[in-house]
# Entry
Amino acid sequence: MRDEILVDGHNDLPFAARTQVGHDLSRLDLAAGRQSVRTDIPRLRAGGLGAQFWSAYVPDDLAPGAAVVATLEQIDFIRRLAETYPSTFALARTAADVRRTFAAGRIAGLIGLEGGHSIGNSLAVLRMFAALGARYLTLTHNATTNWADSATDVAVHDGLTSFGLEVVAELNALGMLVDLSHVAATTMHAALDVSVAPVIFSHSCCRAVCDVPRNVPDDVLRRLTGNGGVVMISFVPGFLTADRTAGVADVADHIDHACATAGVDCVGIGSDFDGCSTLPDGLEDVGTYPVLLAELLRRGYEEADVVKIMGGNILRVLEAAERIASSDR
# Structure
């Protein structure tokens, strides 16, 4: 972990800061350690994190204009996080930025928009979010939008509307990643049908291992192989097992299944720290990533494959998206 980059696909610290301290960083001393959240600088360093997609999440019951404003406030917090702790964090837009930041001993921060409602049904707003540094858009959160079906709501679009297809095309043109966590299986297939860039699941698990709507079916996992995308396995206990509690082995079981079904080149880590109330035993905060990597090595994974899972695969996907966007200009 000193030499290779660990990338986490999803962390909800920005929303935790919004609800706890109104985004006031002076009241959230991340340098000293903060027990009211799962994420702080001492534990990030102990966990060996190299890059984090910070989630710019806002509730999906907001009206379109309010959702856009709230998302801008979330992005502002992520940017101020890097400004407040410049020796620890640096904003990143590209895979090259991530590598440079890691080489300098800092943690790269990337912005992920969680929920298509954030763009207010406007491609222009999406383009402006990209200009501010957003690197992925989760097409829905828990509610179906005007243009995309969610996994946890009534499906009304058979996946994506014509505007939803335009959103996917615009994301490809912008070099932003299409994130299919939270969406219905029909939406997953519809996006895979049209995306010319690899897609991601920023924080999802495998439905064959734990049969809940938020998880990814095997037929979609198999399509990731040809698409070149990545499913980033979440630590949310409700996605891992039908039991009330989960452990490190349960996360590794989902990684095993994703590797067996999609291939080791299509798997990553997307914890969802600070986005869920409980976590697996042994993976309670951002200081625990080494425990999971040690479990993979104990199971017989080659070191080269662990490097792919911990960050190599998602960096490859970022590079592919960047190339495709450049070729469209």
The domain at 7-328 is CATH 3.20.20.140 (TIM Barrel).
